[in-house]
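One thing: can you check what follows?
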Amino acid sequence: MPEPILQLEAITKKFPGVVALDHVSLEVFPGEIHAIIGENGAGKSTLMNILAGELQPDEGLIRYHGNEITIPSPLVSRALGISVVFQELALCPNLSIAENISLWRASEKFPFSLLNRRMFYEKGGQVLTQLGLGDIDLRTPVGQLSVAKQQLVEIAKAISTNASLLILDEPNSALTQEESEHLFSIVRQLRDAGVAVLYISHHLEEVLQLADRISVLRDGRLVDSLPASQATIGGLITRMVGRTITAKPRQFSDQSAGAPTLQLSHLSSRGGYQDISFELHRGEFLGIAGLPDSFKDELVEGLFGLRPSSQGEIRVDGQPVAIRSPLDAIHHGMYLIPADRRGAGALLQMSLRDNIVVSSLKDHHRAGFLRTAEMRRTARRHFQDLDIRASSLEQLMANLSGGNQQKVILARGLATQASILVLHEPTRGIDVGAKAEIYRILQELAGRGAAILIVSSELPELISQCDRILVMYAGRICGEFDHQEATEEAILACAMGQATHLKEPVERSIHG
């Protein structure tokens, strides 16, 4: 057995009111894929941030290549050969793909040497070819890419540094199955070349498929560390949560007999989605599936006023509405839970109270002055109803786990009294326990008459939760499935343009 490349000894990290890591000790070996799993709030991100130099442990030792070290900054972490791909992307949208890939190397040299842009493009091309993106234009600004391609650029940036320890946090959360399989192949190649890989994921099936060893964190403590060959999904869930997860079965319903609360008629955007027509009813879960280039993400933006639609009509409760901005959407009873939770949804340096009420301030003022007591009452009601796990309403949003951040953003939508909830990748990066809790909350809201639109790249999520699923391909709806006939194979065939499965009136809207 080789010597470990990384040894953590009794690592402890405390935040106000929370012990994030409690004497965690583990070893990582070269040429090993070591998975770290646990519920949101288990301590995975804190551990990763300590190795990235973003946080300092309160107690414990870090040994790297046998030497005791401290990691006071990200610059030192990268200099040691530790490269981290965070779940929340850290790219510069105004810079090109090549410049983003080479950003770390450029920051190490500037201002003491000139930047060799030709080298940027050569190195960027090599790494992207390795990732199967050799035909992409390296001059393209990253901000123009889909989230999936941005995630691949983030991964390319990390592996371009020739790191000896690579840390991947949910690296395929926005990737298709084919892109994920290609990524796994690259991770295995890196392992076979002697790189140590710390792999953080909530997808237990892929963990069992990819990892050599699995360590389980719960409530900041290391519960177990075992070979992947000895692990089962049921056993890992029990270790993660300390209890059996019993999700309430989804009671599917046919709401189509009643009047729709949301209607889209021939909605189109320039160079994007085309001729989109569908209806959403109160109490209904409607899903939208599609590959990253299907324009389903752009449709979400158009529906919520983040992107202009060139033609078509939106009706809410039978009345035509103009939605040119998110304020218009909120005014008409819609609310969006965005896919980019931290970048577009969470106000990280504000309190939970402010995060919950920020979109409904018009309901909490008198004569131009905010009524803070009323704001607190509203925030506390939703805080308790959604069982948000935090020390208080004054806790910073940045210090919450991903699952609890998602519940706070959902609480913000409820505070606006939204009757139409648009959820874009609602459980991305959320553990199995938090997923079950989010689904339970949504089912209760639907039972009270809310209309739920889920846009997701996770087909099992759509199949298990939605009464109907629409499938998009090349900007158009090419399939509609009710819950009895929805299968992953049939949905994927439509999403890849290999089949159509259309019903009235959607078929008329596309071909007529």
User: Anything to note?
Assistant: Residues 125 and 489 are 34 Å apart (CA to CA). The longest strand covers residues 18-28. The mean pLDDT is 86. Residues 177-192 form the longest helix (16 residues).
